Amino acid sequence: MSVHPVSRLSCCLLVLLFWMAGTNTALAAHPGQAELVREVARDTGQSPAALNALLDGATMQQSILDAISRPAEAKPWKDYRPIFLTDARIDGGVAFYQQHRALLDRIATEYGVAPQYIVAIIGVETNYGRIVGRYKVLDALVTLAFYYPPRAPFFREQLKALLELPASQLAGPLDSLLGSYAGAQGWGQFMPSSIRDYAVDEDHDGRIDLHDSAADILASVANYLHGHGWECDAPVVARAQPDARAHANDLNELTPKHPLEQYEAWGYAPLQRLDPGRPASLQQLEGPTGPEYWFTFQNFYVITRYNRSPLYAMAVEQLAQAIAAGVAQADAAR
Predict the structure, then answer these.
(1) Distance (Å, whole) CA 282 – CA 121
(2) Cβ neighbourhood burial of 312 (10 Å; 0-12, 13-18, 19+)
(3) Which of 1, 99, 186, 212 has the most crowded CB, counting CB atoms within 10 A?
(4) By three-state DSSP, how is residue 279 classified?
(5) CB neighbours (10 Å) of residue 166?
(6) Which residues partner with 258 through β-bridges?
(7) pLDDT of residue 5
(8) Whole-model pTM over 0.85
(9) Can you state the percent helix, strand and coil of the chain, rounding each to 5?
(10) Where is the Transglycosylase SLT domain (predicted)?
């Protein structure tokens, strides 16, 4: 029996639709998903079908795109500082330090990083583990990798790193992990590449837990700072006083480029005694009463590897100093 032309066309369309439905990558849920799946499968041997199923279950979240467009670091220093330098945040840091003192002291010795800076980073990041994020990490990284062109290459790298992490470096199944709108996890808010490169199993239980193991959390933060070149017992910042002729090249650079004595020649005097040959940079921040000038050194630069904002690094520095002072005061009162 002959087939009517319309029926023949309908059959062809049905065959095409069934073929597409059975192809893992033909109807990828997200733009760029097929290529990423091929790369991860090639590099790790994971099943493309399983990877596609995982990514198909992730959804683009407009609230994530909204959040990344208004970061706190866009505020001036006079408005940014009060977010983190509160009595509650300082007292919380002192209490956290005292609670984990033996562990912190051991980790500080092991990694060569002063304990107050480990505590301060956790204080700024998550208020000592109280606010670790409510977004699905997979949703966050899929949204930013595939739907946020300004930083898509960075977040695609993070999504790939997440998909390639072994189960021993994850707090649970990939599609259950919660974190920040940027896909950072745990008390220290580690991105997937940082988990891969710097997270450590400090309690030696065979897995890295950045949510519930204080040893793993604190040691991972210390290892991150150490791995980026932290200098033990070295300064982080020093206040600078400009004179009437002050002018500086490379203002607000993060990498220390000039010896301190060069800035003095340009009219910026340190308000404490420091090695004149120490490499420094100079930051100008908008304080509550006008411009503030700060010399920043290698350790400040290291903190900006955690978050590239100089406001973030300054908040960590000042919170660390306040915590150390609070601990010393509590010790003296005993």
Answers:
(1) 22
(2) buried
(3) 186
(4) strand
(5) 10
(6) 280
(7) 41
(8) yes
(9) 55, 10, 35
(10) 34-321
